[in-house]
Amino acid sequence: MDRMRRNKVEHERQTHQVLQNTPLDLIETGKSLKVQAERPHLVSLGSGRLSTAITLLPLLEGRTTLGSGGTDIPLQGPGIAAQHCYIENQGGNITLYPCGNQCSVDGLPITKPYRLTQGCMLCFGQSAFFRFNHPEEAQRMKSMLPAGSLRVNTVKPLPSGKKNKQTKNINSP
């Protein structure tokens, strides 16, 4: 019983330390809630259809290990090794090391160290999906865009009744 209590206290201490090292902004935007972090992090896209939580996983300076056994970020699912891979943060440069295990970035298999960039999609094994966010890099990228080009929808709709010659109706023969 005493061991379980010590594990719980240690877990709470580690959680408190992560929260201190990962300042988060919670922004209410009407009917949604926006969570923003200042430091590089992974956003878990769940571990299957039954997952309902959103998890932010900070990538602190140094090495963060991922896998199914005793790692900094525990992973579950088919194709996950005990020590699956690690991610290294060296002064804001974030690199994924696959350790010979199944890893992909933006759908492409990765077999060598790979520098992660803002917004890339990661898959470990066959079903552990994440998005990589690097707020500082995203801000630099935004600052390079011409003014007004940050609009979400840059495609103008056609006037009703007119068809674009390049648009195909997938339901027609």
Task: Report the average pLDDT across residues.
Answer: 79
Percent of sequence in beta strands: 25-35%
Largest sheet: 6 strands, antiparallel
Our measurement of the CA-to-CA distance between the termini, rounded to an integer number of angstroms, reads 69 Å
CATH class of the domain at 61-128: Mainly Beta
| Portion of residues within helices | 10-25%
What's the quaternary structure here?
single chain
Our count of helices gives: 2
* Uncertain parts: 162-173
Any idea what the shape is?
globular
Radius of gyration: 20 Å
- At CATH level 2, the architecture of the domain at 61-128 is Sandwich
H-E order: HEEEEEEEEEEEEEH
In the CATH hierarchy, the third-tier topology of the domain at 61-128 is known as Tumour Suppressor Smad4
Task: Assign the structural class, choosing from mainly alpha, mainly beta, alpha/beta, alpha+beta, or little secondary structure.
Answer: alpha+beta
Number of strands: 13
- Strand order, largest beta sheet: 4-3-13-12-9-10
Task: Tell me what you see in this structure.
The chain is an alpha+beta fold and 173 residues long. The protein has a domain at 61-128: Tumour Suppressor Smad4 (Sandwich). Helix content is 17%, strand content 32%. The protein has helices spanning 2-21, 135-144, and strands spanning 24-29, 32-37, 41-44, 55-58, 62-67, 73-74, 85-90, 93-97, 103-105, 108-109, 114-115, 121-124, 128-133. The chain has a six-stranded antiparallel beta sheet, with no helix packed on it. Strands 6-5-7-8-11 form a five-stranded mixed beta sheet, with no helix packed on it. It is globular and about 55 Å long. The relative contact order is 0.12. The model is unreliable at 162-173 (pLDDT under 50).
